[in-house]
């Protein structure tokens, strides 16, 4: 499918073999296709035990007692641990430390960990779990996010005073964070009625976005190995080794350096591995038993083992003048964070600051709430707060366009942001944002063939419903829709999510060779390939090895927020530059460079030190001899600011990125089934580092958005998940996923390494509203719930 | 004549399996899936566990040359049959054309389900179901 | 858990007689899910994969006898002409890997109302062959499903085969899923027109505690259809047929869909499948003439 990618304005003049801008093969590819790549669930050690977790059967209950006596009597059981056995801090969390390592006093969601067992066989461990008795007093769960936000009489999920206080989050009751934004006349309290009176068209709608699962394929797993120094070595699939370490060590009562983490093979992440799952539990069991302990969740357990995308309830009102110019917008966004905070505060920060999308609107009032409930905890997932809002604002744009008799692309272009625009927080977009051009390109892409132009229109596989034979063309109507999404790249609101890289150059077997070492998590995105490409480009050396990621080098920050090419890429580039300087200095020391010869004229190319004026000065192998040159560098992005808690102003973001989607669908309007025929994208990535992997990111992101548009929802009723399996939580198959035409723009961001822009998330934002808009176009239905259900299309209340 | 069917269990039983043309003898409970036997007892972890219920395909192996899901196959029922896993699929360290093609086209990211996809894709070709994109997709 | 692995059909019947609690396992595609999730711990498993005759199929007088262990893959490849609706249903079962293992016998044994093969068996008036050490008996599919996952099979019996009547007219199966492949039916429907007996048959899946027939719809169609001249049905008649099918369903709201939607979808599928069948029937008549 990489063939379908069109690039514009690409400078390929100075490309190193397998360097930046080319598509070298993944260094882990061979291991992955032969089954030899060791994922976190594949590890095995002589003598190891199996860890398993006892989970709460209730969404909300008081614990009066836990009796492990019978479990401990079972032969083969080596440890049964509860909250009393947590050696250090009993609470952990990404942003607020509010989550018990093992539940005490209360359980706050169904599936919360209550006790852990280590046994010589998984079956033994399972039996031991059955023998633990917990005395619960069942309490009524808080299940409704709106009630949690606004009902003063709603029970508290966390007792008053039990949580760390963050003034800037406007915490109150069950609110984890409330973030308002006020601009224009809303900043001085003008009522909306005044603006409404000036509008030529007003649309007001309530939207819902369902709880989406990241649906990574490799469930939570890892192995903890007790060490002789009293510490522990943990091999785990995660997105950020150091933030795990920073939560695990205090819980174990150990200094950070005694908790060493190594990244095991990661079977997908998408945000679901930002929070801890089995990490502390496995370490506790290993330290207690003195033996390696392996923990592997099954799929059902995985559904409660990681956080999900926040379900959202949103009330959006937009007013435009009769010519289509946007006048005002008021947004209320309620994000259900579930029982523990996870990254809810940051998700609220994104949803509020980007809630209006990439549109110029002079008067905006946003009220974004992140709430505690007894629902499954929610946190990071690809798109992170921007996805939910994007479904809302793009739906609003379509409704306004319809009301004003404008083409949806025309309305968007009329109000499009560009470089120099301000987003609602007052932050200036100081990098290219060619939104209008992207929209035109998306509109002008060739359309897929109409149904009657297909070689065989009766082929069931081309129809909604597929081979299940529900239509031979009856009821099938085509629709077209557009979606635009604006996403922040890297962490925001003053967070310094720096990355560290160590680069070492030496001659091995007479050939210069480079080793790149970072703690960054390869989760499938292809960062291992990118790191090698950057080293080759910067150091002119073909042989580059990527060291396994571990905590023996400084933090790389998270493989999240589309930030690793930017941040760890930036760190590798910096470290390479430092190595290069040292090599030049070495060349000078050896008298190979004339005194008046500036470093500017030197380069490393083809394994040699080359002067622009004097040609080849030395081969790196000769120059290095038996010496190694090693440099470690930290890369920091520019400083960002928190949002002020009153009006939500502040330059909170590092970088903005955008994708535009055009979706074409065939809908069986009588049965409510959808076949996506085309899902074409235009994305500005600043600079393409690896065309093939980039295509994979855009296709994958778009497909995850397709899932949210049409099928993916964790159904939660009375705080209980009803579909914790891949039989009933449906994700798109290849028969649901159309060919994708992709146009990539490269308008460099002057602040970023190589001018690149994070690319993984934007397509996840834009594809969902594009598809839903296309289904609306085909059906004329309102469709305010994502995912769209067959019931919504045929008009049956759910 | 009462009960001539071989009765085994409930205690662990000895099972002889031919995996990748090698005879392997293991002690398992009769309820053990082929996937658990491969992964937990034989250290053949190339076949992956993704869903435990036959929806994801990451555990695809061949039994007597046909692609099946190891998570929905009882190990004990495979006695006397030839099992092929991803480990036995490439000839030593040499990859076959399908594996090379997966790498060339960057046909995976995290790669967790890739061994299953490779096993399924080769079987698909052998079954003659690869005449068009639509047929492959089905 | 005990494990029984008979090598012959006689041994299998003897084993089932001695261990009536034993759960027969063939492809494993249903039973294994329950084992993996610990939902069900049978005292014994009865492995039928070694009983060669179960995987056989062939003519049996005017009928086709389909061994209970014939895989869906084989049904798709070989039975398209004899049992088009069953073959169509088999094509919608899960993935190729599961179609290689899953069997109609397993579908009947589990008797989930969502099983894909039930509606075609009901509509085509298939007969289930049950066997025990005491002998063989035949139960019409239409008498086979008694309650939620409860069937006419006695504890000591095994499902030996399905007898498919000679096809004498069009058959159509359709199934709703929320994605375009690999789904458990939200609702499914099958209709058959039998020129020989001049009767219509129906089957409904995933819309009641058991697989169902729409008897009133069958009777209406049997009476209404122009079996001789194959004249088109009025729009009103097609619509009424759809309504009768929907009213025969007894669906619930669940995680896969709402009861109202299931009824609605059944009426749409019934109308469409009937229209396709009438068109096919007319073509068939034209060929005969």
Which tags fit this structure?
heterotrimer, A: 798 residues, alpha+beta, Aldehyde Oxidoreductase, domain 3, Aldehyde Oxidoreductase, domain 4, C: 289 residues, Uridine Diphospho-n-acetylenolpyruvylglucosamine Reductase, domain 3, five-stranded antiparallel beta sheet, three-stranded parallel beta sheet, 11 helices
How would you sum up this structure, described in words?
The complex is a heterotrimer of chains A (798), B (138) and C (289). Chain A has 18 helices and 34 strands. Chain A has 798 residues and is an alpha+beta fold. In chain A, the strands form nine sheets. A seven-stranded mixed beta sheet of chain A has the order 4-8-2-15-12-13-14, with helices on both faces. Chain A is globular. Chain B has a single domain, classed as Beta-grasp domain (Ubiquitin-like (UB roll), Roll). Chain B contains five helices and six strands; from the N terminus they run βββαβββαααα. In chain B, strands 3-2-6-4-5 form a five-stranded mixed beta sheet, with helices on both faces. Chain B is elongated, with a radius of gyration of 16 Å. With 289 residues, chain C is of the alpha+beta class. Chains A and B meet through helix 1 and helix 16 of A and helix 3 and helix 4 of B.
Give a concise summary.
Chain A is of the alpha+beta class.
Q: Tell me, what's the shape of chain C?
A: globular
Instruction: For the record, give the distance between the C-alpha atoms at the N and C termini of chain B, rounded to a whole number.
Output: 47 Å
Percentage of residues assigned to helices of chain C: 25-40%
Number of domains of chain B: 1
Number of E-state strands of chain B: 6
Q: What do we call the CATH topology of chain B? A: Ubiquitin-like (UB roll)
Structural class of chain B: alpha+beta
Uncertain segments of chain C are none
Assigned CATH class of chain B = Alpha Beta
CATH structural architecture of chain B:
Roll
Uncertain residue segments of chain B: none
Please outline the major beta sheet of chain C. 5 strands, antiparallel
């Amino acid at each position: 499918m990489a063939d379908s990618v069109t690039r514009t304005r690409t400078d390929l003049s100075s490309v190193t073999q397998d360097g930046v801008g080319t598509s070298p093969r993944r260094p882990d590819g061979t291991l992955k296709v032969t089954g030899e790549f060791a994922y976190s669930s594949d590890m095995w050690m002589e003598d190891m035990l199996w860890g398993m977790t006892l989970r709460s059967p209730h969404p909300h209950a008081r614990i009066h007692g836990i009796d492990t006596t019978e479990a401990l009597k079972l032969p083969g059981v080596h440890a049964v641990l509860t909250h009393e056995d947590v050696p250090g801090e009993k609470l952990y969390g990404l942003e607020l430390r509010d989550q018990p390592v093992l539940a005490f006093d209360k359980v706050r969601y169904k599936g919360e960990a209550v006790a852990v067992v280590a046994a010589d066989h998984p079956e033994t461990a399972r039996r031991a779990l059955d023998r633990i008795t917990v005395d619960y007093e069942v309490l009524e769960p808080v299940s409704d996010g709106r009630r949690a936000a606004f009902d003063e009489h709603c029970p508290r999920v966390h007792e008053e005073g039990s949580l760390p206080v963050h003034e800037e989050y406007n915490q109150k009751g069950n609110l984890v964070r409330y973030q308002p934004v006020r601009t224009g006349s809303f900043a001085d309290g003008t009522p909306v009625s005044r603006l409404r009176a000036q509008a030529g068209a007003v649309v007001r709608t309530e939207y819902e976005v369902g709880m989406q699962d990241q649906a990574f394929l490799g469930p939570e797993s890892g192995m903890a190995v007790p060490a002789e120094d009293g510490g522990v070595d943990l091999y785990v699939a995660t997105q950020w080794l150091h933030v795990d370490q920073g939560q695990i060590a205090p819980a174990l009562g150990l200094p950070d350096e005694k908790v060493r983490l190594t990244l095991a093979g990661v079977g997908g992440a998408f945000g679901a591995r930002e929070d801890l799952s089995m990490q502390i539990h496995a370490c506790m069991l290993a330290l207690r038993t003195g033996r390696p302990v392996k923990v592997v969740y099954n799929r059902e357990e995985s559904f409660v083992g990681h956080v999900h995308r926040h379900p959202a309830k949103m009330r959006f009102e937009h007013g435009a003048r009769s010519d289509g110019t946007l006048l005002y917008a008021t947004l209320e966004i309620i994000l259900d964070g579930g029982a523990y905070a996870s990254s809810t505060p940051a998700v609220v920060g994104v949803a509020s600051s980007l809630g209006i999308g990439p549109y110029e609107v002079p008067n905006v009032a946003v009220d974004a709430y992140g709430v505690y409930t007894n629902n499954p905890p929610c946190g990071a997932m690809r798109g992170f707060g921007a996805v939910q809002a994007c479904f809302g604002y793009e739906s609003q744009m379509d409704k306004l366009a319809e009301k004003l008799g404008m083409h949806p692309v025309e309305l968007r272009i009329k109000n499009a942001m560009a470089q120099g625009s301000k987003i609602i927080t007052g932050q200036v977009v100081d990098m290219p944002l060619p939104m209008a051009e992207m929209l035109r390109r998306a509109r002008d892409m060739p359309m897929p063939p109409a149904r009657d132009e297909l070689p065989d229109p009766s082929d069931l596989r081309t129809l909604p419903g597929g081979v299940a034979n529900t239509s031979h063309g009856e009821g099938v109507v085509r629709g077209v829709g557009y979606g635009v999404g604006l996403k922040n790249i890297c962490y925001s609101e003053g967070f310094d999510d720096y990355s560290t890289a160590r680069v070492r150059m030496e001659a091995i077997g007479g050939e210069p060779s480079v080793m790149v070492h970072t703690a960054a998590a390869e989760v499938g995105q292809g960062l291992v390939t990118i790191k090698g490409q950057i080293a080759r480009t910067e150091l002119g050396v073909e042989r580059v090895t990527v060291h396994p990621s571990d905590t023996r080098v400084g933090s790389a920050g998270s493989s999240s927020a589309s930030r690793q090419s930017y941040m760890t890429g930036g760190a590798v580039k910096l470290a390479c530059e430092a190595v290069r300087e040292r090599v030049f200095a070495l060349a000078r020391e050896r008298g190979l460079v004339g005194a008046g010869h500036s470093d500017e004229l030197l380069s490393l190319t083809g394994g040699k030190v080359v002067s622009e004026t004097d040609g080849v000065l030395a081969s790196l192998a000769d120059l290095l001899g038996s010496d190694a040159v090693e440099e470690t560098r930290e890369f920091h992005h520019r400083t960002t600011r928190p949002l002020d808690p009153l009006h939500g102003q502040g330059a909170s973001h590092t970088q903005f990125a955008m994708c535009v989607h055009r979706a074409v669908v065939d809908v069986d309007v009588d049965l409510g089934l959808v076949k996506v025929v085309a899902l074409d994208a235009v994305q500005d990535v600043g600079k393409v580092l690896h065309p093939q992997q980039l295509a994979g990111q855009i296709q994958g992101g778009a497909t995850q958005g397709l899932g949210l548009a049409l099928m993916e929802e964790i159904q939660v009723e009375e705080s209980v998940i009803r579909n914790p399996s891949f039989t009933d939580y449906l994700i798109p198959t290849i028969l649901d996923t159309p060919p994708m035409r992709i146009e990539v723009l490269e308008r460099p961001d002057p602040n970023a390494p190589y001018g690149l822009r994070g690319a993984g998330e934007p397509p996840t934002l834009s594809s969902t509203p594009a598809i839903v808009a296309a289904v609306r176009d085909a059906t004329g239905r309102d469709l305010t719930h994502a995912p769209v259900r067959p019931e919504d299309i045929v008009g049956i209340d759910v | 004549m009462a009960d001539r069917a071989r009765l085994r269990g409930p205690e662990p039983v000895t099972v002889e399996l031919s995996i990748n043309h090698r005879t392997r003898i293991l002690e398992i409970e009769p309820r053990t899936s082929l996937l658990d036997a491969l992964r937990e007892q034989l250290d053949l972890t190339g076949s992956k566990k993704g869903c435990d219920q036959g929806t994801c395909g990451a555990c695809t192996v061949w039994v007597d040359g046909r692609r099946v899901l190891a998570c929905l196959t009882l190990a004990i029922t495979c006695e006397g049959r030839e099992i092929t896993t991803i480990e036995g699929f490439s000839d030593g360290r040499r990859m076959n054309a399908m594996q090379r093609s997966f790498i060339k086209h960057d046909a995976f990211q995290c790669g967790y389900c890739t061994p299953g996809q490779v096993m399924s894709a080769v079987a698909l070709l052998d079954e003659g179901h690869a005449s068009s994109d639509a047929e492959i997709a089905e | 858990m005990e494990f029984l692995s008979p090598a012959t059909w006689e041994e299998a019947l003897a084993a089932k007689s001695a261990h009536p609690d034993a759960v027969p396992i063939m492809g494993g595609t249903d039973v294994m899910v329950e084992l993996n999730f610990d939902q069900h711990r049978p005292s014994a498993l009865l492995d039928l994969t070694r009983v060669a005759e179960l995987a056989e199929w062939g003519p049996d007088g005017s009928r086709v006898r389909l061994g209970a262990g014939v895989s869906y893959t084989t049904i798709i490849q070989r039975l398209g002409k004899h049992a088009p609706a069953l073959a169509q249903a088999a094509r919608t079962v899960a993935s190729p890997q599961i179609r290689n293992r899953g069997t109609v016998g397993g579908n009947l044994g589990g008797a989930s109302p969502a099983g894909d093969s039930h509606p075609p068996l009901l509509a085509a008036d298939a007969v289930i062959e049950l066997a025990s050490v005491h002998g063989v008996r035949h139960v019409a599919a239409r008498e086979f499903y008694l309650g939620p996952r409860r069937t006419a099979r006695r504890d000591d019996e095994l499902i030996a085969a399905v007898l498919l009547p000679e096809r004498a007219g069009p058959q159509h199966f359709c199934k709703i899923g929320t994605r375009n492949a690999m789904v458990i039916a939200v609702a499914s429907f099958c209709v058959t027109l039998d020129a020989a007996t001049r009767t219509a048959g129906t089957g409904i899946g995933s819309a009641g505690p058991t697989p169902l027939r729409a008897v009133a719809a069958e009777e209406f169609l049997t009476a209404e259809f122009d079996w001789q001249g194959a004249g088109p049905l009025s729009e009103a008649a097609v619509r009424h047929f759809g309504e009768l099918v929907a009213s025969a369903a007894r669906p619930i709201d669940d995680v896969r869909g709402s009861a109202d939607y299931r009824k609605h979808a059944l009426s749409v599928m019934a109308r469409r499948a009937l229209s396709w069948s009438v068109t096919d029937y007319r073509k068939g008549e034209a060929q005969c003439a």
